[in-house]
Amino acid sequence: MSPKRPHLVYSSSSSPSRSLSPQPKRFKSSIAGSQSESSTAIVNPLRVHIIEAKLKVKEIAELRSILESGKVLCDADSGQFQLVYEAEAKDADVIVTAVKMRKRLERYIDWDLAVQKFVITPDWLRDCAKEHQVLPYDEYIAVRSLRSSTQVTEDLSTSVAEEREDSAEINYRSPTSCLRLSPLECPNQELAEKLDVLRHSRELEGKIMNTLAYERAIATIKAYPFVITEDLLKTEVSNLSHMGVKTVAKIKEYLQSGTISEAESIAEDPRYQTLTLFTSIYGIGPAYARHMYDVEGLRTIKDLMFHYENLERSASAEPDVSKQKSPYMILTTTPEKTRVPTLTSREAVQLHEELNDPILRDETERMHATIMKELGHLQPGCTSTITGSYRRGKKHSNDVDIVITHENLKTAGDQVKSLCEQLVHRLYSRGMITHLMGLSNFGNTSSRTAERGSLYKVMSVFLPPSDGPSARLHRRLDLIFTTPELYWTAVVGWTGSKMFERDLRMWAKDRGFKFDSSGIVRRQDSHPYFPKSEAEVFELLELPWIEPTMRNADI
């Protein structure tokens, strides 16, 4: 049996086996049976931090209640200690956790800190409160790597089982898209597309929860590797995650009749067709589309044009500067303070056919080559990746997304923003960017990985340079500039698909991280991580590698 680790000792002459936080304040406490001020005992605060991961709500409340009660514990060697809750792990003497693996513990505190503290199970706190004394720590050490060698050997089989339980594997039965292979074309593609009509109709009507339910069901079907039959529907498919009773009934109807009657009816509905047309225009969402259909009585593109022309005339006749949207976006870091026109609603309607015309892969590659050639005149040696549906293998895209960085880009001094705006200025001056739809700095978002200015995005209308007899069509182009440290996180975040990214964020959250395209941070203390490859992003989040072409969890 391993020797017991010493209790906490705060005397300056003591030499505990672990360095603890600075010398604590001492409280005076009356000893039972004595009322004289001279007969007081020194009570040391014993600061306890709780890592709430893997603890149930009732357990957290129980442990907090013990600490908030201010119980005084006796220790044979060191006097008395009063339990005190400590919000910061770095300032605590003891860290209570239900986590049993080093890798998982490091999601919440640094390992260098863990080896300086007593990291123990919740039972230690409960037993101490019950016995009214500071119990030895060795019997309660939470993480195997923090125990003595003898204990490590004894617990090896348990640890292996825990690691196996905590590991993630690719499995089509998994409830999360980031643990499933979702090909571009699945064995049940036609069925998924029929269900997508139902999903889209709910989205157009603003039924958010119904929309999400269909999205998850479609993602499950996209990853199912076998052609669904009535037998498989009954024995397995109906038991997969996110397959509700109504969805299963729709699938059964499809298997028996070759179609879904509701989807066919919706596809032929004039209202559905009009709302679909309206929402295909930049700047028009489902709610506004319904307003124009139900309230304004609009039905066609000509109706929309007339509607927006009237709005512009009204704005000219009775200008209200406070309500008008600026017709320009100003590039603040360019010497000329370039003013680039914003895309108005009327112009979006005029260009809707071009902006919705599919962009084939070879055109996407030509656009990318043009962008990088122009960027090379400003900053040679930039690195870039075409993301979005192109990277997932689709034959055509609705827009082109390009993530860009350079090894010398730094957060300080608006370097990311400056390079982005310089490129926009250059493309605009050469007639290749005609309008801006958005100019956004995401460096100070909810993901605190990046300092302000580390990720910058421009949404634009791009018009390729004249190239022989081929038609020049207006295209949507999104440029995402970032620092080298955040480049691969941005690539993962902008590759998609929508459902894959949603589940990726939820997966990260459940494991103590905040993830989005602007970075990865540990939720406990906002500690940032900077993966050096796309594969390292998956490794950090403890996910198996999934190729971009297998992330098509949506239609």
UniProtKB/TrEMBL annotation:
Its cofactor is Mn(2+). Keywords: DNA damage, DNA repair, DNA replication, DNA synthesis, DNA-directed DNA polymerase, Lyase, Nucleotidyltransferase, Nucleus, Transferase. InterPro entries: BRCT_dom (IPR001357), BRCT_dom_sf (IPR036420), DNA-dir_DNA_pol_X (IPR002054), DNA_pol_B_palm_palm (IPR028207), DNA_pol_lamdba_lyase_dom_sf (IPR027421), DNA_Pol_thumb_sf (IPR037160), DNA_pol_X (IPR022312), DNA_pol_X_beta-like (IPR002008). DNA polymerase that functions in several pathways of DNA repair. Involved in base excision repair (BER) responsible for repair of lesions that give rise to abasic (AP) sites in DNA. Also contributes to DNA double-strand break repair by non-homologous end joining and homologous recombination. Has both template-dependent and template-independent (terminal transferase) DNA polymerase activities. Has also a 5'-deoxyribose-5-phosphate lyase (dRP lyase) activity. It is an enzyme of class 2 (transferase). SUPFAM superfamilies: BRCT domain (SSF52113), DNA polymerase beta, N-terminal domain-like (SSF47802), Nucleotidyltransferase (SSF81301), PsbU/PolX domain-like (SSF81585). GO terms for biological process: double-strand break repair via nonhomologous end joining. It catalyses: DNA(n) + a 2'-deoxyribonucleoside 5'-triphosphate = DNA(n+1) + diphosphate. Its EC number is 2.7.7.7. Residues 11-24 have a biased composition (Low complexity). One of its GO terms (molecular function) is DNA-directed DNA polymerase activity. The active site is at residue 250. Residues 69-142 form the BRCT domain. Residues 1-33 are annotated as: Disordered. This is DNA polymerase. Its main location: nucleus. The lineage of its organism: Eukaryota, Fungi, Dikarya, Basidiomycota, Agaricomycotina. Belongs to the DNA polymerase type-X family. It holds the Pfam family DNA_pol_B_palm. It is found in: Nucleus. One of its GO terms (cellular component) is nucleus.
